[in-house]
Amino acid sequence: MTQLQAVVQCKCPRCRKGDMYKYSLFSLKYDEMYEYCPKCSLRYEIEPGFFWAAMYVSYAFNVAELVITGVIAGQFLGANEIWWLIGIVLSPILVLMPFNFRYARVLLLHFLSPIKYYRGYEKE
Questions:
Q1: 82-95 and 97-111 are packed helices; what angle lies between their axes, rounded to 10 degrees?
Q2: Which residue, of 9, 70, 83, 124, is most buried by count of CB atoms within 10 Å of its CB?
Q3: Cα distance between residue 1 and residue 82, in whole Å
Q4: Residues 44-86: pLDDT tens digits?
């Protein structure tokens, strides 16, 4: 499995086989992670407070979503409909909140942590 596939499927950054999350993205429990990888026993929170850094990744997602929807909505609504514009620009933030939460943590573990992929790292 490539690293891109592991990121999209929310797999462990070390073995790329174990799931990171217990439930589906579309579940009400979308935020529940395994503490350890079910395949290689990697502890996902590698130090206390590690996932606080995911807020910054999520912030980058939110800014990109605000800019994109703001530009698109501004082209169609103009400056006269400011309250409609605000509502339209903020709605993707609410709709994409589960996506932002999960993938901020996944990207943090895969790209911004010292964890490296090891092909043979899987306990049988």
A1: 50
A2: 70
A3: 47
A4: 998 888 899 999 999 999 999 999 998 888 888 776 778 888 8
Amino acid at residue number 28: L
How far apart CA 97 and CA 38 sit, in angstroms, is 26
How many degrees, rounded to 5, is the angle at CA 76 between CA 70 and CA 80? Answer: 85
Q: What is d(CA 23, CA 46) in angstroms, rounded to the nearest whole number?
A: 21
Residue 64: partners with Cβ closer than 8 Å, 6 or more residues away: none
CA atoms within 13 A on the CB side of 93: 14
pTM: 0.84
Q: Does residue 42 contact residue 73 with C-beta atoms inside 8 Å?
A: no
The Cα–Cα gap between 107 and 8 comes to 10
Q: 124 falls in which pLDDT band (50, 70, 90)?
A: very low
Give domain limits for the chain.
3-111
